[in-house]
Specification:
Strand content: 5-15%
Helix content: 55-70%
Number of helices: 18
Radius of gyration: 27 Å
Oligomer: single chain
Shape: elongated
Length: 486
């Protein structure tokens, strides 16, 4: 990072701090003038506006009527979030260790890239981002409210947390004393219900994306390539990313398997003529010299035994293209194991779901803020189904983008809220889970007449550990975010 870049970053941060200070002054003025009281609002951490409202409470009361069902849902949520809490904690710690051992060498992100604010962050589009965040926050807080009512805790209000014009989050506000007096298990269910509801919603959206993928077919059966290996035959011959392979030496290429079967008829060192469609739609014929696949992978560090185990031998042809995909690859990538073209069995599907969730989180970064690359979108057309014929390919793509961003934000909120630090749900869960474990140890020790921990001592340890955990993970996250600048 040169001096000019550093000055730009400093200017970005200076602008942010000036805006925050101005907002803090405005809030302080409104508080003194009684405006916040008239709005049923309050100031939190000096700069955050907490706006309360009664909207949604009647609907909450009606939906929460089957109390036994929602209590069972809360128990499932608790188990899911307890496992996810452990996984998220492990990921954050491993990321911290990885950053210590191998500090990032890339240029640091700008201020806008570090905040998940639609429109400001370049990978989160304003329109889809706002819709997805609002819906996902409502889902999250409604999950809290449902379990609170299922256990008899009254919800005073729903609300929004604002930093200037930017929504930072939403909240369901139960009666504080009722929350404190509630049995620990019930309180845990209530805290877990928010992130669990986000994760369940994301899972349902994955299924819906799979159903949507059944409504499209490829414009043609040819394959396209996403990456070209530098200095390979394809690169030197003039192939480009997003080229569509039409034929090799006059033989039409149908699907990935067809490409591989055709290439097996050649050896390294041979020349082939490839007809391609450019991303622009232009048809061209290029001549490529095939290199040696065995040599290519050997130079990457593969040994002969490993190459033999995957069937690569000396003399095998290597064109130099990566990311070969068929025309429906764009939407199939979003649907993952729920795509109609997925070929895994039930067990493989179950294993792939959490892996696919991680892939979804990386998609905006890989695609520079879009769900499907425009070129891959151009390869899709509506199927002959009744639904597809009614809404057309434009309607299908609208739903695909809506489902994707809802999935992305729900997964983001679900897992982020399980970081074991207050005020996240994971921080409250960590405190109550630790309190429960210490209470269990007390019962065991008392029964065996080995030890007896006073209840107040358990309360103190759990609260102290929660504070330390919050500070520890806050410091870790700040370190991971800020280390690229040093």
């Amino acid at each position: 990072m040169d001096v000019g870049d550093f000055m730009v970053i400093e200017a970005d941060w200076a602008f942010v701090w000036i805006a925050v200070i101005i907002w803090a002054v405005v809030l302080k003025t409104w508080e003194k003038n009684g405006i916040l009281d008239r709005w049923n609002s309050s100031r939190v951490f000096k700069v955050i506006l907490m706006i309360r409202g009664k909207h949604g409470l009647n609907l909450l009361e009606k939906i929460s009527k089957p109390r036994k069902f929602w209590r069972a849902y809360g128990e499932v949520s608790l188990w899911l979030c307890s496992l996810s809490l452990f996984a998220v904690t492990l990921v954050v710690i491993l990321s911290f260790v990885g950053t210590l051992l191998s500090p990032p060498s890339i240029d640091p992100p700008s201020v806008s890239e570090m905040v998940a604010i639609p429109g400001l962050n370049p990978i989160i589009p304003l329109g889809w981002g706002v819709v997805a965040f609002v819906v996902s926050l409502v889902i999250h807080e409604f999950g809290h409210g449902l379990i609170a009512r299922a256990h008899g805790m009254r919800v005073r209000s729903f609300g929004l947390l604002m930093l200037g014009p930017l929504p930072l989050g939403a909240f369901a506000e139960p009666q504080h004393q009722e929350l404190l007096r509630a049995p620990r298990r019930e309180r845990l269910r209530m805290f877990a219900a928010g992130p669990a509801t986000n994760l369940f919603a994301a899972f349902v959206l994955m299924i819906m994306m799979g159903m949507l993928a059944t409504q499209v077919v490829a414009v043609n059966e040819h394959i396209h390539v996403r990456e070209i290996v530098k200095d390979s035959g394809a690169d030197l011959g003039g192939m480009q990313p997003w080229d569509t392979l039409v034929s090799i030496d006059g033989q039409e290429i149908i699907g990935v398997d067809g490409f591989r079967d055709t290439l097996e008829n050649y050896s390294s060192g041979e020349r082939i003529d490839i007809v391609v469609y450019r991303e622009s739609g232009l048809r061209e014929t290029i001549t490529v010299n095939l290199s040696d696949k065995h040599q290519y992978y050997s130079e990457l560090g593969w040994d002969n035994e490993s190459l033999a185990s995957i069937g690569i031998e000396v003399g095998d042809p290597f064109l130099g293209i990566m990311g070969m995909a068929e025309g429906t690859a764009g939407i199939d990538r979003l649907a993952g194991p729920f795509s109609p073209r997925w070929q895994g069995n039930t067990l493989e599907t179950a294993i792939s779901v959490p892996i696919h969730s991680l892939g979804i989180m990386l998609t905006p970064f890989q695609m520079k803020g879009v769900a499907i690359h425009p070129f891959e979108q151009s390869l899709l057309q509506a199927s002959d189904g009744i639904f597809a014929s009614i809404i057309g390919i434009d309607g299908i793509m609208f739903l695909a983008n809506l489902f994707f961003w809802l999935m992305w934000v729900n997964i983001l909120l679900g897992f982020t809220n399980l970081i074991p630090m207050v005020p996240f749900d994971g921080g409250h869960m960590f405190r109550d889970l630790l309190h429960g474990s210490l209470s269990g140890l007390k019962r065991i020790g008392k029964k065996l007449k080995l030890w007896d921990i006073h209840t107040l001592r358990i309360d103190h340890i759990a609260s102290k550990a929660s504070s330390i955990s919050s500070l520890f993970f806050f410091s870790i996250l700040m370190f991971i975010m800020l280390i690229p600048y040093f």
